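In the current project phase, our protein records have gained a structure token line. A sample record follows, to show the layout:
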Amino acid sequence: MATIKDVAARAGVAPSTVSYVLSGSRKISEDTRHAVQAAIEELGYHPRASARTLRSARTRVLALAAPRVPGAYRAIDGRFAIDVTDAARGHGYDVLLMTDSDGVGGLRRVARSRLADAAVLMAVEDRDPRVEVLHELGFPAALLGHDDHAALPWTDLDWEAAVALAVRESVAAGHRRMLFLSSAEHEVAARRGYALHGLDGARRAAAETGADVRVVPSHRDPDILARRLNEALTARPVPTALIVQHLILLPRLLDTVAAAGLRVPHHLTVVLVGSLPDELGTRHLPRIDLPVAEMSTAVARLAIDAIGSGRDDGPPSSQEPAGAGASTRPSDAPHHLIQPQMAGPVIAPPPGRP
């Protein structure tokens, strides 16, 4: 196992400097502190200092756990990473980005070596395995998204209400037959919260309105997605509205609609759920934007509050963003659930309707 001398040699500092970084007992330059933390991460060093010393140290760093599959690109991940970093900086915190595909190993390394004071988890799953690790290590965290079983602070768009709102507004415009392009199959299989809640919203709104809402599971393969969507668009009875939650392949989706000889919104109304705010390519469509800035501000505040009474940057969670409330779960962990709002042009009526 790596020793403090190994860490010092890797970072190019004296062993005493490594001790100072770990304990926070002396002021160390940011460059030196980052070099020591990088060496700890590379070597997998776990300090043997007393728990009291480790608890007293403050790195003023939040770890942002954003699992990534190499080669896969999601614009929403980058937007959240930037906005969470901006929000953390407003509280005097830096952000350490962790991209392990499962996130468990990275969280263990960060928590045990005290590279950060708390974690922010993205791509939250139902019964997320990372949550168990956080509880096991007693490491503070907040969730960007929510797991109803996590008993941790969280913030999220109310995805069930968002999809239900899109269905109800479409019905109000005169649509009775519509498609719901849900999150991709792998997101549903991973039990991502937004994917499951979106499906619940479509089913609830269909039952409430009596509309024919056919669920089309999306797919990360654009060819499979195009084939599924084309089959659904040409099936009888013909749908007049398409509600889309899986927006990563939106350009390909719109190409498929055009290839089927359908013009938006004259032949088919397209409504987006979870679009990026201010994205120029979606402004001509009725939509429910994902409140990235509000969620980022809320999750940074919740994560910093979770660090506990040892922090020195402000009052506890009584200063939560507007709309936060106490959870009904036994843990009473604070949360910030954001209600959806329609944006963009009004939903057009179906063909033949004024």
About this structure: Residues 4-148+294-334 form a domain with the Rossmann fold fold (CATH 3.40.50.2300). The first strand starts at residue 61 and ends at 65. Residues 193-209 form the longest helix (17 residues).
